[in-house]
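Re: beginner question about structure tokens

> Can someone show what the tokenized structure looks like for a real chain? I only ever see the sequence side.

Sure, here's an example I had lying around. Input first:
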Amino acid sequence: FGHDVTVRLYNNAEWEEAGRDVLALVAGSGRPAPPRVVVYGHSLGAGSITRFARQLKAHDLAIDLAVYIDAFGWRN
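And the corresponding structure tokens:
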């Protein structure tokens, strides 16, 4: 990947940590435009995408592409 791509992997229970990490990357990027955020989740990980997206939205950051594979979630 080039210098403008960051890849992070998290399990389904780490969606809050993932959100904090993404927000910290955005805050420290010095870019005038927000980054493109692409997420992929499988099973419970896909169920966590919605909570992750809500966390980012509270800070005016959107997910550009969300891929849900065999999504399962207790509430979402």
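Each token stands for a local structural state, so reading them left to right follows the chain. Helices lie at 15-27, 44-57.
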